[in-house]
Specification:
CATH superfamily: Ribokinase
Shape: globular
Strand content: 25-35%
Radius of gyration: 18 Å
Number of strands: 13
Enzyme class: transferase
Structural class: alpha/beta
Largest sheet: 9 strands, mixed
CATH topology: UDP-N-acetylmuramoyl-L-alanine:D-glutamate ligase
Number of domains: 1
Function: Catalyzes the phosphorylation of ribose at O-5 in a reaction requiring ATP and magnesium. The resulting D-ribose-5-phosphate can then be used either for sythesis of nucleotides, histidine, and tryptophan, or as a component of the pentose phosphate pathway.
EC number: 2.7.1.15
CATH class: Alpha Beta
Subunit structure: Homodimer.
Order of helices and strands: EEEHEHEEEEHEHEHHEEEHHHH
GO molecular function: ATP binding; metal ion binding; ribokinase activity
Number of helices: 10
C-alpha cells in the first residue's frame, strides 16, 4: 500500500468577506464596499491546498451543520479532489467566519465555530494509508491532542499549524513532528524573549517553522536552519495565505520532497494566494506554482536579510 495520503483534520467555515479601506479599530465603524461569501475554514483551506499541490492524495475529517451553508463547503472540497469524511451535526450550524479585508490586503477575522466544535477524538478515520496528519486549532484542543497522539502511535507524521494563536499543552507538543506558526502564534507559544531563532530552538518539537509574510519563512529542522525568502507579489487579499503554505508543505512532505524544496513550494503557493480574493478561491494549482518557480527565485540578498531578521548567525 502506498502511504502518500495527507489527512487534514479540522475546520470548515463559510466566509463572509467585506472589503474596506482599513480594518476597524476597537469601537470604530468602517463603511465597507463590496461583499461576498467564499468557502473557507483553516482545515478546509489546507485540504484544498494539499489537493491542488498535486501528487499526494488528500482526505479530510470535518464537521458540517445540517443547513444550506454546508453544501457550498462540501462542493468546494470535492471539486478540489478532497476525499471528505463528514460528521453531520444537527445541534450546531455550519461554522462561519466574518472577514474584513483592507485595501492593503491585510485582514481581520472573527470565527463562529459552530459544528466544528462537534469533532471528537473518536472521529479520526483509519490511518492505514496515511503519511501525514495536518491539523489546526479551530477544532477542540482535546480532540487535536488525541488525534496527534493516535497518529504518532501509528507512525504517521504529525503537522500542526498552531492557529488561531493559543498556548499549547505539553502533551500535544510532544506528539508533533512539524510545528507551523506565524510570528504572532510563535509569541503565544514561546513568548517574546529572544530572537525568532532562539524561540524556535526553545520549542521541544523536531521541526519548527515560522512564516514571516512577504519575508518568507524560517525553519529549524533538528540542529539545521533552513531559510526561504518570499516571492515578491502585489497583495490583494492575504486570507488563506498561511493555510496555502501549510497544505502545500504537507503535500510536498508526503511525496518525499526535502524540507527545503517543500518550503520553497509552500512560499510560492502562499505568495500566489495573496494576489487573489477569497480563501479557497485564491489557492493555486501545481501548474501555477511550477510556473512561478520557473521564472522567479529568491536572491542571496533576500536570504541574508531573512537570516538577520531571525537572528541566525551567518
Amino acid at each position: 500500500m502506498t502511504h502518500n495520503v495527507v489527512l487534514v483534520a479540522g475546520s470548515a467555515n463559510l466566509d463572509f468577506v467585506v472589503r474596506a479601506s482599513h480594518v476597524p479599530a476597537p469601537g470604530e465603524t468602517v463603511l465597507g464596499r463590496d461583499s461576498a461569501t467564499f468557502p473557507g475554514g483553516k482545515g478546509a483551506n489546507q485540504a484544498v491546498a494539499a489537493a491542488r499541490a498535486g501528487g499526494a492524495r488528500t482526505r479530510m475529517l470535518l464537521a458540517l451543520g445540517d443547513d444550506a451553508q454546508a453544501a457550498s463547503l462540501e462542493a468546494s472540497l470535492r471539486e478540489a479532489g478532497v476525499d471528505c469524511r463528514i460528521k453531520r451535526c444537527t445541534t450546531q450550524p455550519t461554522g462561519v467566519a466574518f472577514i474584513c479585508v483592507a485595501d492593503s490586503g491585510e485582514n481581520a477575522i472573527t470565527v463562529a465555530p459552530g459544528a466544528n466544535l462537534a469533532l471528537e477524538p473518536a472521529d479520526l478515520p483509519a490511518l492505514d494509508d496515511v503519511h501525514s496528519l495536518l491539523m489546526q486549532l479551530e477544532s477542540p484542543l482535546s480532540s487535536v491532542t488525541a488525534w496527534a497522539r493516535a497518529a504518532r502511535a501509528a507512525g504517521v507524521r504529525v503537522l500542526l499549524n498552531a492557529a488561531p494563536a493559543q498556548p499549547l499543552p505539553p502533551d500535544l507538543l510532544a506528539a508533533v513532528d512539524v510545528l507551523i506558526v506565524n510570528e504572532g502564534e510563535l509569541a503565544a507559544i514561546a513568548g517574546n524573549d529572544g530572537s525568532i531563532a532562539q524561540r524556535l530552538a526553545a520549542l521541544d518539537v523536531p521541526c519548527t517553522i515560522v512564516t514571516l509574510g512577504h519575508l518568507g519563512c524560517c525553519a529549524r529542522d533538528g540542529a539545521a536552519w533552513l531559510l526561504q525568502p518570499g516571492f515578491a507579489v502585489t497583495p490583494v487579499d492575504t486570507t488563506a495565505a498561511g493555510d496555502t503554505f501549510a497544505g502545500t508543505l504537507a503535500a510536498a512532505i508526503a511525496q518525499g520532497a526535502t524540507l527545503q524544496d517543500g518550503l520553497r513550494r509552500a512560499c510560492a503557493a502562499g505568495a500566489i494566494a495573496c494576489t487573489r480574493a477569497g480563501a479557497q478561491a485564491s489557492i493555486p494549482n501545481v501548474g501555477e506554482v511550477d510556473a512561478l518557480l520557473a521564472t522567479v527565485d529568491a536572491t542571496a540578498t533576500g536570504r541574508q536579510h531573512l537570516a538577520h531578521y531571525c537572528g541566525i548567525p551567518e
